[in-house]
Write a structure and sequence with these properties.
Blueprint (H helix, E strand, L loop, with lengths): L1 E2 L7 E5 L8 H16 L3 E5 L3 H5 L7 E6 L3 H5 L4 E8 L11 H9 L1 H9 L3 E4 L2 H10 L8 E3 L20 E6 L9 H15 L2 E6 L9 E5 L5 H10 L2 E4 L15 H7 L5 E3 L5 H4 L6 E3 L4 H10 L2 H18 L3 H10 L3
Parallel strand pairs: 2-3, 2-4, 4-5, 5-6, 6-7, 8-9, 8-11, 9-10, 11-12, 12-13
Antiparallel strand pairs: 1-3
Helix pairs in contact: 1-13, 7-11
Length: 339
C-alpha cells in the first residue's frame, strides 16, 4: 500500500513491515521517518506484503531517492528510483527460506539481487557481521558504498536506574520471538543455573510460557505493551539475549536491539558470542559475552561483584546515549541526501 504524504515527494521509503505490525523493521521504519521529519524532508511510504505487490506498486512519478528497509525494494523498483539506499539488517541476505519455492526463487535470482546492491547509492549494514555475511554471499565490496552503521533507538524514555545486585530476588528479562535461533529454551534452563550460583530466587520475564519451579519464577510477557516492556527492562538486573547462529537455516542475530533498549535504563545484557551481538554488547564494559554452557555462567555469577555490576550498568547507559541515539539517523540522512 502506498502512503502518499506529498504530491511531489522526492523520497520514497519502502518496507515490508509497518505499525501496527510489530517487529524490528517496523520500529526501524519509524526511526527513519522521524529522522526525515526532523530534517523537514517530504517523503512517501510504500508498505508491501509480497514481491507481487512490490512489482505492481502504483508509483505516480520517479523518485530521486529510495530508502529501502528491505533491499528487495531497490531490486524491483529500480526503474522508478534514481538513487537507492538500502539498510541491511540480517537474515534477508542469506537468500534462503523455510519455504521450498521461495528458497529456490532466491537461489536462482541471488546474483541479480546482489547486482542491485552493487549498483545502489549506499548500503548501510547494521553490523560488521552482516556486512561480512553479505560478502560471503558474493557481494563485491566497495568501501565508498558499503558502510557499517550500528542500530540506534528512540531514547526519549531513557532513565538510569541501577539495580541492587544484593537484592534477594534477581530479575532477568528476555524479549525475543519464539523461534529456534532465539534460544528461549536455553535461556529458561540457564536461569536455574544463575539461581543456584547466586543462591537466590530468579524471576524470569520472557516471551514464552515455561513452568515455574523452586529456583525460577517465570512471567510470560509476550503480550505486554511498549510501556510495560520498558518498565520491565527498568527493573531487571540483567537482559539476556542468547541467540544462536542458524545461518544454515537462514537466521542469525544481526545486532540485538534489546541490548540497547535494556541499556537505556542502565540494565546490562548478557549475550551469546554469535552474530552481531558482540558488536552490540561490549564485553566487560556495557555487558558480558558468555559461551553458552552452564559452567561459564555459574562461574561468572559466582564471581561477579556488586562494584563491577554497578560500573557496567552505568557504562551501558552512558554508551547507549552517546552512540546509539536515533538522532544519528538524521545526521546520516542529511549527509547522503543532497536535498
Amino acid at each position: 500500500m502506498l502512503h502518499k504524504n506529498f504530491d511531489s515527494s522526492k523520497i520514497l521509503i519502502t518496507t515490508p513491515d509497518y505499525p501496527p505490525k510489530l517487529g524490528g523493521l517496523s520500529t526501524f521504519t519509524k526511526s527513519i521517518e522521524r529522522a526525515l521529519q526532523s530534517l523537514g524532508y517530504e517523503y512517501d511510504i510504500l508498505v508491501w506484503d509480497d514481491i507481487h505487490e512490490l512489482k505492481s506498486s502504483p508509483l505516480s512519478h520517479k523518485y530521486k531517492y529510495g530508502l529501502h528497509i528491505h533491499f528487495f525494494g531497490c531490486h524491483y523498483l529500480k526503474n522508478s528510483i534514481e538513487e537507492n539506499i538500502n539498510f541491511i539488517h540480517g537474515s534477508e541476505i542469506l537468500f534462503t527460506s523455510p519455504n521450498l519455492l521461495k528458497r529456490i526463487y532466491k537461489k536462482l535470482f541471488k546474483r541479480l539481487f546482489l547486482a542491485s546492491l552493487e549498483h545502489s547509492y549506499f548500503n548501510f549494514f547494521i553490523s560488521e557481521f552482516t556486512l561480512n555475511k553479505t560478502v560471503d554471499q558474493g557481494l563485491r565490496l566497495a568501501y565508498d558504498r558499503d558502510i557499517v552503521f550500528h542500530n540506534c533507538i528512540d531514547l526519549s524514555r531513557a532513565n538510569l536506574k541501577i539495580q541492587n545486585f544484593h537484592d534477594p530476588v534477581i530479575n532477568l528479562v528476555c524479549v525475543a520471538r519464539d523461534v529456534a535461533h532465539k534460544n528461549l529454551e536455553y535461556t529458561y534452563q540457564i536461569s536455574k543455573v544463575i539461581s543456584i550460583a547466586l543462591n537466590k530466587t530468579v524471576q524470569l520475564f520472557i516471551t514464552k510460557d515455561f513452568p515455574s519451579n523452586e529456583f525460577v519464577k517465570v512471567i510470560n510477557i509476550s503480550d505486554v505493551s511498549d510501556e510495560e516492556r520498558s518498565d520491565i527492562f527498568k527493573k531487571a538486573h540483567f537482559n539476556l539475549l542468547l541467540s544462536l547462529d542458524h545461518s544454515h537455516r537462514g537466521f542469525y542475530e544481526g545486532f540485538g536491539l534489546t541490548v540497547l533498549e535494556a541499556a537505556s535504563f542502565g540494565t546490562p545484557s548478557i549475550v551469546s558470542p554469535h552474530g552481531g551481538l558482540v558488536e552490540a554488547c561490549h564485553h566487560g564494559e556495557t555487558g558480558w559475552v558468555l559461551p553458552l554452557n552452564d559452567k561459564d555462567f555459574s562461574h561468572f555469577f559466582s564471581s561477579l561483584s556488586s562494584g563491577s555490576y554497578q560500573r557496567v550498568s552505568k557504562k551501558a547507559y552512558e554508551h547507549t546515549l552517546l552512540s546509539h541515539d536515533e538522532s544519528a539517523y538524521a545526521h546520516l540522512l542529511k549527509r547522503v541526501l543532497n536535498e
